[in-house]
Amino acid sequence: MALTRIGLAGLAVMGQNLALNIAEKGFPISVYNRTTSKVDETVQRAKLEGNLPLYGFHDPASFVNSIQKPRVVIMLVKAGAPVDQTIATLAAHLEQGDCIVDGGNEWYENTERREKAMEERGLLYLGMGVSGGEEGARHGPSMMPGGSLEAYQYIEDILLKVSAQVPDSGPCVTYIGKGGSGNFVKMVHNGIEYGDMQLIAEAYDVLKSVGKLTNGELQQVFAEWNKGELLSFLVEITADIFSIKDDQGEGYLVDKALYASKICSYAQGMNIIKAKSTEKGWGLNLGELARIWKGGCIIRASFLDRIKKAYDRNGELANLLIDPEFAQEIMDRQAAWRRVVCLAINNGVSTPGMSASLAYFDSYRRDRLPANLVQAQRDYFGAHTYERVDMPGSFHTEWYKIANSKI
């Protein structure tokens, strides 16, 4: 057998599907898993899905030696200790200049620690976020590689073909930046994803509990929303969910406030990334992140194209809320947004996501917040000092003594 182009270790759902995707795109791939039955299962799938160039190995030495140099191995194993164990298993057989890619949801500081450790052994390391679930892994995910630029360049041609393809903006992959930036960006992506899911669930709850909509009516509402500015994967699948009847019994499987909340959710996520990029000196391109999230990943939505354009207009944009387009849209919707949150509160329906998003918006738009009083209280009971808005420096006031001297 000729040497393969790349290897993949870890053949659970994501690993198996990504390996088949790589093979289907014409790149011969070696696969390995500690549980050998997973290897055999993947090889069988490759045969059934078109005799794809995928080769299975039951021991790490044979696996590593089957890959062309410089070798690149993608790991898709559970974050934490299993990653370190897999690295130890693979590194015993790798040579200087070879590369390990962690495609799991790892904490970014662990990635930076491992990158340094691998560098000491002459190995390259990438931490690569992969979004899109089982379907995305098989047919085109959004991919967020960060770490060694040299390592990324080894496999750029593979990633460009394997990732989701969006007609107007290209492959949903880009080199994110140094260190653990790829994992950090994927982590915030996941936060935005669950924020989206929570907001959609709250909209559903308000419509069902207060509006008394049936599942059929809810399906129509979400299907209609998916034709407009809320067009997204999550709204699409929510409409589908309401149309599917329970095969185990009677009924269904799941018995304008939303858009404004969504803007705030994405604004917070982008600001977290921006702050960490500044702290770590990663120099991340926020517009490019919005571009690679347009396809393949769970948060894919037409809305992301508008976020990209906002950062294209102003690469130093402090917050999406002050982009002229988004600012106007959120101002146009805020009255309805407030009515919906009040309606939910008055009817005892919990909407923590919408309420928190509204609070974030109100905090951001105000000139001053009451933090000055908090600082005064901390200085009073703990002499923690405070800063002033009219002059630089730290200050302390003998609040108790002054207050009691006037008695």
Automatic annotation (TrEMBL):
<dbReference type="Pfam" id="PF03446">
    <property type="entry name" value="NAD_binding_2"/>
</dbReference>
<comment type="similarity">
    <text>Belongs to the 6-phosphogluconate dehydrogenase family.</text>
</comment>
<keyword id="KW-0311">Gluconate utilization</keyword>
<dbReference type="GO" id="GO:0050661">
    <property type="term" value="F:NADP binding"/>
</dbReference>
<comment type="pathway">
    <text>Carbohydrate degradation; pentose phosphate pathway; D-ribulose 5-phosphate from D-glucose 6-phosphate (oxidative stage): step 3/3.</text>
</comment>
<dbReference type="InterPro" id="IPR013328">
    <property type="entry name" value="6PGD_dom2"/>
</dbReference>
<dbReference type="Pfam" id="PF00393">
    <property type="entry name" value="6PGD"/>
</dbReference>
<dbReference type="InterPro" id="IPR006115">
    <property type="entry name" value="6PGDH_NADP-bd"/>
</dbReference>
<dbReference type="InterPro" id="IPR036291">
    <property type="entry name" value="NAD(P)-bd_dom_sf"/>
</dbReference>
<dbReference type="GO" id="GO:0006098">
    <property type="term" value="P:pentose-phosphate shunt"/>
</dbReference>
<keyword id="KW-0570">Pentose shunt</keyword>
<dbReference type="InterPro" id="IPR008927">
    <property type="entry name" value="6-PGluconate_DH-like_C_sf"/>
</dbReference>
<feature type="domain" description="6-phosphogluconate dehydrogenase C-terminal">
    <location>
        <begin position="182"/>
        <end position="400"/>
    </location>
</feature>
<keyword id="KW-0560">Oxidoreductase</keyword>
<dbReference type="GO" id="GO:0019521">
    <property type="term" value="P:D-gluconate metabolic process"/>
</dbReference>
<protein>
    <recommendedName>
        <fullName>phosphogluconate dehydrogenase (NADP(+)-dependent, decarboxylating)</fullName>
        <ecNumber>1.1.1.44</ecNumber>
    </recommendedName>
</protein>
<dbReference type="InterPro" id="IPR006114">
    <property type="entry name" value="6PGDH_C"/>
</dbReference>
<dbReference type="InterPro" id="IPR006183">
    <property type="entry name" value="Pgluconate_DH"/>
</dbReference>
<dbReference type="GO" id="GO:0004616">
    <property type="term" value="F:phosphogluconate dehydrogenase (decarboxylating) activity"/>
</dbReference>
